Amino acid sequence: MDTERLEITEKNIAHAGNIIRTGGLVAFPTETVYGLGANALDEDAVRSIYQAKGRPSDNPMIVHIADTAQLADVASEVPEAAIPLIQAFWPGPITFIMKKTPEVPMTTTGGLETVGIRMPENETARALIRAARRPIAAPSANSSGKPSPTTYSDVLEDMDGRIDAILLGEDCKVGIESTVLDLTGEIPMILRPGYITKEMLENALGSEVQYDPALMMDPTARENQGDFHPKAPGMKYKHYAPKAQVKILEGSDEAVQAQMEELKRFYHYQRKKVAVLDYGRDSKAAAKDFFARLRELDREGVEVILVHALPEEELGFSVMNRMLKSAGYDVIHV
What we know:
By secondary structure, the chain is an alpha/beta fold. The protein has twelve helices and 15 strands.
C-alpha cells in the first residue's frame, strides 16, 4: 500500500474524509498526539486500525467528534456532570467515558458498553471529522507500545505503507494524550491523566474527582490478568517504550545529578551510548517534548536514557505517568 502524503488544504481534507467514509485509514494531527482514524461506526474499518498498529483488541478506541450534535451518534445518554465539563474543556484535550449507542460497534469500544468521546481542539482534526461525516475512532498513530507520535515524521516512521493517507499537519502542541474521565459512576474518575488535571476538573465541577486506583498499578502486572478489561487506552498494556532502556531517577536535584554522572561513567565504561533528559520542574515543556525526544534518541542509537523525575503534582503527575510506563517502572530512588 502506498501511503498518500496530504498537505493541509480544503481539497485534501475532503479527500481524506472520503477515505474515512469508505472504510480507509487516515493519520491526522490533534493538539495532543497524531491520531490514526477510521469510521468509528464501521466495524471492519476499526478492526483495520488494530491490525495496522498491532494493537490488542480489548484496548478501546477513543471516538472523535466535531461538535456536540454528534454526541447523539455515539452516546446513549449524557450525564449531568458532563455539561459543565463540556462547556469548560471542549474542544480540547479531554475524553469523556459515557454509555454508548447501539450504533457504536463493540470492536470500537474493546467489548465494552461504554465509549470514550473527545472533541479535539485542532482545527484540521475537526475539519476531517466534518468531511468524513462520521465520528472517527482514533488511537495514537504509532505501532502499539512505542512512543506516541507528535509529528507527521513520527507517524511515517511507523505507519508508512500500512495506512491509506496522512495529513501533514503541524507538530502537536500538548504532546501527551488526552485526559480520560469516566462519567458513568457516582464520582467522576480519571482513568488516564493528561493536560486537563484533576484540580482543573474539580474547579469546573465544584465537586470531587478521583483517580482510578488502577493508575497506581504497574501495567506490566496487569498484562497477565485476563479478567481485567480496560475502559481507556493505556490502562493494561505496556506503552510509550523506546528501543533504549529508560531509567527514572527520583530524589533531590543534587542527588539525582550526582547519580546521573555516576551512571553515565558506568555506561560509558560499558561502551553504551547514554542520554539524559532533565526538564527541571517544567512539566509543560516535558509534556510537549518527551515523546519526541524518545523517538529522536532512538534514531541516534542511544542505548540508555536517564530521566530526572518530575514533581508528581498537577500536569507533572500526568507526564510522570508516561515516563514511568516508558521505563517499565524502573525507578532509582536517590
